[in-house]
Amino acid sequence: MVNITVNGTAVQVPEGTTILNAAKAAGVDIPHLCYLKDLNEIGACRVCCVEIEGERNLVPSCNNPVFEGMAIRTNTDRVRRTRRINVELILSQHDCHCATCPRSGNCHLQNVANDLGILENPYPSDLVTGARAQWPRDFPLYRDTNKCIKCMRCIQVCDKIQGVHVWDLSGTGSRTRVDVSGNRRIKESDCVLCGQCITHCPTGALRERNDTQRAFDAIADPEKITVVQIAPAVRTAWGETLGLTPEQATVHRMAACLRRLGFDYVFDTSFSADLTIMEEGTEFLHRYQAGETRDLPMFTSCCPGWVRYLKSHYPQWTDRLSTAKSPQQMFGAVTKNYFAQKLGVSPDKIYCVSIMPCIAKKQECDLPTMHTEAGKDVDLVLTTRELVRMIRAERLHPEALPEEAFDSPLGTYTGAGVIFGVTGGVMEAALRSAYYLVNGKNPKAEAFTAVRGHAFAQGWTEAEFDLGDGAIVRTAVVNGLGNTHHLLEAIAAGKVHYDFVEVMACPGGCAGGGGQPQNLDDEERAAERGKRLYALDQCSTLRFSHENPEIQTLYREALDAPGSERAEEWLHTDHHG
Ligand code: HC0
Ligand code: SF4
């Protein structure tokens, strides 16, 4: 242990602790902008600088460890002035139109500037002219150079966690800025649209394309029947920036909000997650039993960030992707083909909206392969953050609303469908039903918990199961594309052998998705949100996708059996398209 003082208070901390964390242990909060634990400890913003007794220069506290006898001052006049000047200089290169910024009220820079009482800036504004106009408006990820504070968090998360290297520094000196790496345009880059750069951005420099007005327009159109689906992971996070407790922020209260917003029918993507299991589980068993090694391992296909990554980095393995569409797309296809018929309306009257924790889903729904004869499966995708903005725009108070049930017949789901939103969930749900298909009876619902992954851990989870009948299935579950790269390289080198692999691009799976709320405390919440999904599964009466009564009715009335001609037409796709 090391003995130090912080503003005169003695404290003992473990060796190697940074000044920032040591101060925290002494109850002193040092402001910072660029620092992100374990990811970005580069002292770029210089807002966290402190004075050390005996040292001539101030030092950044985020990347300097304490030493025995260190006397730290975080609140001297010199510290206060320097911190203020550093923030003023950042503000001089920042577009400070907070009223039109999606991060207003939830922005690290705004907070720090307000806390320091900066009411005017002595430094002249120095913004990049025309920066906004250069960014493509139709791309699902939007970047505003003039909101960027060059903290480099986006670069670090894209490099260290995702290994995709989309962002880099360009220019020199005061003209240094963050841009797409290698002088490329964003559309030419191999950005997979995971959105991790957005959730780790401290300001409004990165955000999703704003599609909320398109949703309001559809709701207002008397010719349209609006059908909305809620993804599994959204329920774990939508209340965070609305100040709701987890007990208040239930999925049924979200259903009530969506009805107050004016959507005609409200459903749960967990229903079509169950449907995905029927199709993907059956497909896996066919591939596995056929023993065609060129088709194995079979990769899950429900994460469009991952599908984009595979197609750009390992195109030779595209055929190993399951042909099953993602639950989002299956839901749209069933809505336009089956639900429209139930309502007795033409599919083109239906406008299908998804609430997703994801940016890549905005692009997935626009793929030319994601439609049937009834038209585009899904018309519009909104992120969790956009849903929150709509709730705020309509001045709804979710806590005062009653919990409301989903509509029928696409509103019933099992616990297996709910855990899709957490890393390992798709695999666990698939194994539960695959076991049933092989043995004609259910396993214990908890039989496959060994596949559960961990957010922000390095590597992947592997497990082997005897599904019965001599079927030993080797599985791997991975989250984060940096980990995925290592897994794929190990498979390519013949170091590991699997039959079925689940990949989710975001750390922790969709619970940590790029469309989820951004929180000012910078805590990674994916693991905590994932636990909530497992708890929901545990208290569900139905825990096996094949036991979902509405799925059974759907097969009876329209699809016949998994993999049938109609199921192929509605629910599967060609990833080469
Ligand atoms: Fe996911 Fe999904 S679980 S990708 O993570 O499979 O976005 O939550 O909706 O489609 O169900 C996201 C979340 C989904 C889909 C489902 C899958
Ligand atoms: Fe989207 Fe989920 Fe994939 Fe992230 S893990 S890119 S949120 S589907």
TrEMBL record:
Cofactors that this protein relies on: [2Fe-2S] cluster; [4Fe-4S] cluster
Taxonomic classification: Bacteria, Bacillati, Bacillota, Clostridia, Eubacteriales
Organism name: Subdoligranulum variabile DSM 15176
Listed name of the protein: Hydrogenase, Fe-only
Family, similarity comment: Belongs to the complex I 75 kDa subunit family.
2Fe-2S ferredoxin-type domain ranges (all copies): 1-78
GO molecular function ontology, one term from the record: NADH dehydrogenase (ubiquinone) activity
Domain 4Fe-4S His(Cys)3-ligated-type: 78-117
Gene Ontology CC annotation, any one: membrane
Domain 4Fe-4S ferredoxin-type residue range list: 139-169, 182-211
